[in-house]
Amino acid sequence: MSALLSLRDVWVEYGDRIVIEKLDLDIAAQAFVSIVGPSGAGKSSFLRLILGQEAPTRGTVLLDGIPLVPECGPDRGVVFQRYSVFPHLSVLRNTMFGLECPKAPLSGRLFGSARRAARDEAVAMLEAVGLGDSLDLYPAQMSGGMQQRLAIAQALVQRPRILLLDEPFGALDPGIRADMHALITRLWRDYSLTIIMVTHDIREAFSLGTRVLTLDKRRHDPHAPHRYGATVVYDLPLRNRTDEADCESDSITIDDIGNN
Ligand SMILES: Nc1ncnc2c1ncn2[C@@H]1O[C@H](COP(=O)(O)OP(=O)(O)OP(=O)(O)O)[C@@H](O)[C@H]1O
Protein backbone atom coordinates (compact mmCIF):
# COMPACT_ATOMS: atom_id res chain seq x y z
CA MET A 1 0.00 0.00 0.00
CA SER A 2 1.46 3.40 -0.93
CA ALA A 3 2.01 5.89 1.87
CA LEU A 4 -0.43 8.70 2.59
CA LEU A 5 2.23 10.57 4.53
CA SER A 6 5.97 10.31 4.03
CA LEU A 7 8.74 12.02 5.95
CA ARG A 8 12.13 12.04 4.31
CA ASP A 9 15.21 12.94 6.35
CA VAL A 10 13.19 15.41 8.42
CA TRP A 11 14.89 17.62 11.00
CA VAL A 12 13.38 20.16 13.42
CA GLU A 13 15.85 22.58 14.98
CA TYR A 14 15.42 25.70 17.08
CA GLY A 15 18.69 27.57 16.80
CA ASP A 16 21.35 25.07 17.92
CA ARG A 17 18.77 22.90 19.70
CA ILE A 18 18.01 19.78 17.65
CA VAL A 19 14.58 18.42 18.52
CA ILE A 20 13.98 15.89 15.72
CA GLU A 21 16.74 14.41 13.59
CA LYS A 22 16.85 12.29 10.48
CA LEU A 23 13.25 11.12 10.63
CA ASP A 24 12.27 8.77 7.81
CA LEU A 25 8.76 7.43 8.03
CA ASP A 26 5.83 6.29 5.89
CA ILE A 27 2.27 6.23 7.20
CA ALA A 28 -0.38 4.32 5.26
CA ALA A 29 -3.92 5.59 4.75
CA GLN A 30 -6.33 4.46 7.48
CA ALA A 31 -3.59 3.57 9.92
CA PHE A 32 -4.10 4.45 13.59
CA VAL A 33 -0.61 5.45 14.69
CA SER A 34 0.11 5.98 18.38
CA ILE A 35 3.15 8.08 19.24
CA VAL A 36 4.81 7.65 22.63
CA GLY A 37 8.07 8.91 24.05
CA PRO A 38 9.56 10.80 26.98
CA SER A 39 8.53 14.35 27.77
CA GLY A 40 10.29 16.83 25.51
CA ALA A 41 11.11 14.18 22.86
CA GLY A 42 9.38 16.22 20.17
CA LYS A 43 6.00 14.47 19.90
CA SER A 44 4.00 17.71 19.66
CA SER A 45 6.61 19.13 17.28
CA PHE A 46 6.04 16.07 15.10
CA LEU A 47 2.28 16.73 15.07
CA ARG A 48 2.87 20.39 14.18
CA LEU A 49 4.91 19.22 11.19
CA ILE A 50 2.06 17.06 9.93
CA LEU A 51 -0.47 19.79 10.64
CA GLY A 52 1.65 22.17 8.59
CA GLN A 53 1.97 24.64 11.48
CA GLU A 54 5.71 24.25 11.30
CA ALA A 55 8.04 23.47 8.38
CA PRO A 56 11.00 21.12 8.86
CA THR A 57 14.34 22.88 8.98
CA ARG A 58 15.65 20.12 6.73
CA GLY A 59 13.97 17.36 4.76
CA THR A 60 10.50 16.95 3.28
CA VAL A 61 7.03 15.98 4.43
CA LEU A 62 4.92 14.54 1.60
CA LEU A 63 1.15 14.12 1.57
CA ASP A 64 0.10 11.80 -1.29
CA GLY A 65 3.59 12.23 -2.68
CA ILE A 66 3.29 16.04 -2.83
CA PRO A 67 5.26 18.32 -0.47
CA LEU A 68 3.04 19.56 2.33
CA VAL A 69 2.28 23.27 2.26
CA PRO A 70 3.28 24.92 5.56
CA GLU A 71 -0.24 25.83 6.62
CA CYS A 72 -3.21 23.96 8.07
CA GLY A 73 -5.46 22.45 5.41
CA PRO A 74 -8.98 21.02 5.61
CA ASP A 75 -7.51 17.57 4.97
CA ARG A 76 -5.99 17.63 8.47
CA GLY A 77 -7.92 18.12 11.71
CA VAL A 78 -6.57 18.27 15.23
CA VAL A 79 -7.81 17.74 18.79
CA PHE A 80 -5.71 18.88 21.75
CA GLN A 81 -5.93 17.85 25.40
CA ARG A 82 -7.82 21.04 26.31
CA TYR A 83 -8.98 24.41 25.14
CA SER A 84 -9.78 23.63 21.54
CA VAL A 85 -13.43 24.71 21.70
CA PHE A 86 -14.70 28.30 21.74
CA PRO A 87 -16.16 29.08 25.20
CA HIS A 88 -18.51 31.82 23.90
CA LEU A 89 -20.19 29.63 21.27
CA SER A 90 -22.85 26.96 21.79
CA VAL A 91 -22.15 23.34 20.85
CA LEU A 92 -23.92 23.78 17.54
CA ARG A 93 -22.22 27.09 16.71
CA ASN A 94 -18.82 25.67 17.69
CA THR A 95 -19.32 22.86 15.20
CA MET A 96 -20.84 25.03 12.45
CA PHE A 97 -17.98 27.49 12.77
CA GLY A 98 -15.59 24.97 11.19
CA LEU A 99 -17.84 24.87 8.12
CA GLU A 100 -18.70 28.57 8.01
CA CYS A 101 -15.25 30.01 8.51
CA PRO A 102 -13.63 28.70 5.28
CA LYS A 103 -16.69 29.67 3.21
CA ALA A 104 -17.29 33.08 4.81
CA PRO A 105 -13.87 34.08 6.20
CA LEU A 106 -14.82 37.70 6.94
CA SER A 107 -18.17 37.34 8.73
CA GLY A 108 -17.79 33.71 9.86
CA ARG A 109 -21.49 33.22 9.05
CA LEU A 110 -23.40 31.66 6.18
CA PHE A 111 -26.95 32.55 5.19
CA GLY A 112 -29.97 30.88 3.60
CA SER A 113 -29.64 27.39 2.18
CA ALA A 114 -25.84 27.29 2.73
CA ARG A 115 -26.44 27.93 6.43
CA ARG A 116 -29.15 25.27 6.63
CA ALA A 117 -26.84 22.76 4.94
CA ALA A 118 -24.02 23.62 7.38
CA ARG A 119 -26.44 23.24 10.30
CA ASP A 120 -27.59 19.81 9.07
CA GLU A 121 -23.99 18.65 8.66
CA ALA A 122 -23.06 19.93 12.12
CA VAL A 123 -26.09 18.27 13.75
CA ALA A 124 -25.28 14.95 12.03
CA MET A 125 -21.69 15.12 13.28
CA LEU A 126 -22.81 16.03 16.81
CA GLU A 127 -25.17 13.04 16.78
CA ALA A 128 -22.25 10.84 15.66
CA VAL A 129 -20.20 11.91 18.69
CA GLY A 130 -23.14 11.57 21.10
CA LEU A 131 -23.97 15.26 21.53
CA GLY A 132 -27.22 15.30 19.57
CA ASP A 133 -29.16 16.36 22.69
CA SER A 134 -26.73 19.12 23.70
CA LEU A 135 -26.82 21.49 20.72
CA ASP A 136 -27.60 24.62 22.77
CA LEU A 137 -25.22 24.03 25.67
CA TYR A 138 -22.07 26.13 26.13
CA PRO A 139 -18.68 24.51 26.92
CA ALA A 140 -18.78 25.77 30.55
CA GLN A 141 -21.98 23.76 31.05
CA MET A 142 -20.35 20.53 29.86
CA SER A 143 -18.10 17.87 31.40
CA GLY A 144 -14.53 17.36 30.16
CA GLY A 145 -15.61 14.29 28.20
CA MET A 146 -18.41 16.20 26.50
CA GLN A 147 -16.01 19.01 25.62
CA GLN A 148 -13.66 16.51 24.00
CA ARG A 149 -16.57 15.03 22.06
CA LEU A 150 -17.27 18.55 20.84
CA ALA A 151 -13.62 19.11 19.92
CA ILE A 152 -13.71 15.87 17.91
CA ALA A 153 -16.93 16.93 16.15
CA GLN A 154 -15.38 20.32 15.39
CA ALA A 155 -12.35 18.63 13.80
CA LEU A 156 -14.32 15.97 11.91
CA VAL A 157 -17.07 18.18 10.50
CA GLN A 158 -14.59 19.46 7.94
CA ARG A 159 -14.10 15.84 6.83
CA PRO A 160 -10.32 15.66 7.23
CA ARG A 161 -8.51 12.59 5.94
CA ILE A 162 -6.01 12.79 8.78
CA LEU A 163 -6.98 13.38 12.39
CA LEU A 164 -4.20 14.44 14.75
CA LEU A 165 -4.80 13.85 18.46
CA ASP A 166 -2.45 15.43 21.01
CA GLU A 167 -3.08 13.73 24.38
CA PRO A 168 -6.82 14.00 23.68
CA PHE A 169 -7.99 11.92 26.64
CA GLY A 170 -5.22 12.78 29.12
CA ALA A 171 -7.39 15.01 31.29
CA LEU A 172 -10.36 12.63 31.50
CA ASP A 173 -11.39 10.19 34.23
CA PRO A 174 -10.77 6.50 33.45
CA GLY A 175 -14.45 5.64 32.83
CA ILE A 176 -14.92 8.56 30.46
CA ARG A 177 -11.65 7.66 28.76
CA ALA A 178 -12.98 4.18 28.00
CA ASP A 179 -16.09 5.73 26.41
CA MET A 180 -13.90 8.04 24.36
CA HIS A 181 -11.74 5.11 23.22
CA ALA A 182 -14.85 3.36 21.92
CA LEU A 183 -16.00 6.58 20.23
CA ILE A 184 -12.71 7.30 18.49
CA THR A 185 -12.44 3.68 17.30
CA ARG A 186 -15.93 3.88 15.79
CA LEU A 187 -15.23 7.24 14.11
CA TRP A 188 -11.88 5.98 12.78
CA ARG A 189 -13.68 3.08 11.08
CA ASP A 190 -16.85 4.91 9.99
CA TYR A 191 -14.99 7.84 8.43
CA SER A 192 -12.00 5.82 7.11
CA LEU A 193 -9.69 8.17 8.96
CA THR A 194 -5.94 8.08 9.29
CA ILE A 195 -5.27 8.90 12.95
CA ILE A 196 -1.99 9.99 14.51
CA MET A 197 -2.31 10.17 18.30
CA VAL A 198 0.27 11.35 20.83
CA THR A 199 -0.24 9.81 24.24
CA HIS A 200 1.67 9.25 27.47
CA ASP A 201 -0.52 6.24 28.24
CA ILE A 202 1.19 3.10 26.90
CA ARG A 203 -1.91 0.97 27.39
CA GLU A 204 -3.96 3.46 25.37
CA ALA A 205 -1.26 3.54 22.67
CA PHE A 206 -1.39 -0.23 22.25
CA SER A 207 -5.12 -0.72 22.64
CA LEU A 208 -6.07 1.92 20.07
CA GLY A 209 -3.19 1.91 17.61
CA THR A 210 -2.54 -0.27 14.58
CA ARG A 211 1.05 0.85 14.94
CA VAL A 212 3.01 2.28 17.85
CA LEU A 213 5.99 4.57 17.29
CA THR A 214 8.40 5.58 20.03
CA LEU A 215 10.17 8.90 19.55
CA ASP A 216 13.39 9.26 21.52
CA LYS A 217 17.03 10.18 21.15
CA ARG A 218 19.38 7.48 19.95
CA ARG A 219 22.40 9.40 21.23
CA HIS A 220 22.91 11.56 24.31
CA ASP A 221 25.67 14.04 25.01
CA PRO A 222 25.51 14.86 28.76
CA HIS A 223 27.53 18.01 28.16
CA ALA A 224 25.31 19.23 25.31
CA PRO A 225 21.79 17.87 25.83
CA HIS A 226 20.42 19.60 22.72
CA ARG A 227 23.10 18.32 20.39
CA TYR A 228 21.09 15.29 19.29
CA GLY A 229 17.42 15.09 18.40
CA ALA A 230 14.80 12.38 18.65
CA THR A 231 13.85 9.95 15.93
CA VAL A 232 11.75 6.78 15.71
CA VAL A 233 13.53 4.25 17.93
CA TYR A 234 10.73 1.63 17.95
CA ASP A 235 8.17 1.04 15.22
CA LEU A 236 5.72 -1.68 16.23
CA PRO A 237 2.98 -2.75 13.81
CA LEU A 238 0.14 -4.47 15.69
CA ARG A 239 -1.86 -7.33 14.28
CA ASN A 240 -4.83 -6.98 16.59
CA ARG A 241 -6.61 -4.18 14.71
CA THR A 242 -5.20 -4.47 11.21
CA ASP A 243 -8.26 -5.95 9.46
CA GLU A 244 -9.39 -2.44 8.60
CA ALA A 245 -6.01 -0.81 8.46
CA ASP A 246 -2.46 -1.02 7.21
CA CYS A 247 -1.62 -4.72 7.25
CA GLU A 248 2.01 -5.58 7.69
CA SER A 249 3.31 -9.11 7.14
CA ASP A 250 5.67 -8.95 10.10
CA SER A 251 3.17 -7.43 12.48
CA ILE A 252 3.05 -8.36 16.16
CA THR A 253 0.46 -8.20 18.91
CA ILE A 254 0.73 -6.97 22.46
CA ASP A 255 0.94 -10.64 23.47
CA ASP A 256 3.93 -11.09 21.18
CA ILE A 257 5.65 -8.17 22.86
CA GLY A 258 4.89 -9.60 26.29
CA ASN A 259 6.43 -12.93 25.29
CA ASN A 260 9.64 -11.38 23.99
N1 LIG B 1 9.21 27.23 19.42
C1 LIG B 1 10.17 26.60 20.11
N2 LIG B 1 11.36 27.18 20.35
C2 LIG B 1 12.35 26.54 21.02
N3 LIG B 1 12.22 25.29 21.51
C3 LIG B 1 11.05 24.66 21.32
C4 LIG B 1 9.96 25.27 20.62
N4 LIG B 1 8.93 24.39 20.56
C5 LIG B 1 9.36 23.28 21.21
N5 LIG B 1 10.62 23.46 21.67
C6 LIG B 1 11.42 22.46 22.39
O1 LIG B 1 11.39 21.28 21.64
C7 LIG B 1 11.41 20.16 22.51
C8 LIG B 1 10.29 19.23 22.13
O2 LIG B 1 9.04 19.82 22.49
P1 LIG B 1 7.67 19.06 22.25
O3 LIG B 1 6.60 19.89 22.89
O4 LIG B 1 7.53 18.72 20.83
O5 LIG B 1 7.92 17.73 23.08
P2 LIG B 1 6.87 16.62 23.57
O6 LIG B 1 7.50 15.30 23.31
O7 LIG B 1 5.55 16.86 22.93
O8 LIG B 1 6.81 16.92 25.11
P3 LIG B 1 5.64 16.61 26.18
O9 LIG B 1 5.48 15.14 26.21
O10 LIG B 1 6.19 17.14 27.47
O11 LIG B 1 4.41 17.34 25.72
C9 LIG B 1 11.32 20.69 23.93
O12 LIG B 1 12.62 20.68 24.47
C10 LIG B 1 10.83 22.10 23.74
O13 LIG B 1 11.33 22.94 24.75
From TrEMBL:
<feature type="domain" description="ABC transporter">
    <location>
        <begin position="5"/>
        <end position="242"/>
    </location>
</feature>
<keyword id="KW-0067">ATP-binding</keyword>
<dbReference type="Pfam" id="PF00005">
    <property type="entry name" value="ABC_tran"/>
</dbReference>
<keyword id="KW-0547">Nucleotide-binding</keyword>
<dbReference type="InterPro" id="IPR017871">
    <property type="entry name" value="ABC_transporter-like_CS"/>
</dbReference>
<keyword id="KW-0012">Acyltransferase</keyword>
<dbReference type="InterPro" id="IPR003593">
    <property type="entry name" value="AAA+_ATPase"/>
</dbReference>
<dbReference type="InterPro" id="IPR050093">
    <property type="entry name" value="ABC_SmlMolc_Importer"/>
</dbReference>
<dbReference type="GO" id="GO:0016887">
    <property type="term" value="F:ATP hydrolysis activity"/>
</dbReference>
<keyword id="KW-0813">Transport</keyword>
<dbReference type="GO" id="GO:0005524">
    <property type="term" value="F:ATP binding"/>
</dbReference>
<keyword id="KW-0808">Transferase</keyword>
<dbReference type="InterPro" id="IPR003439">
    <property type="entry name" value="ABC_transporter-like_ATP-bd"/>
</dbReference>
<dbReference type="InterPro" id="IPR027417">
    <property type="entry name" value="P-loop_NTPase"/>
</dbReference>
<protein>
    <submittedName>
        <fullName>Lauroyl acyltransferase</fullName>
    </submittedName>
</protein>
<dbReference type="GO" id="GO:0016746">
    <property type="term" value="F:acyltransferase activity"/>
</dbReference>
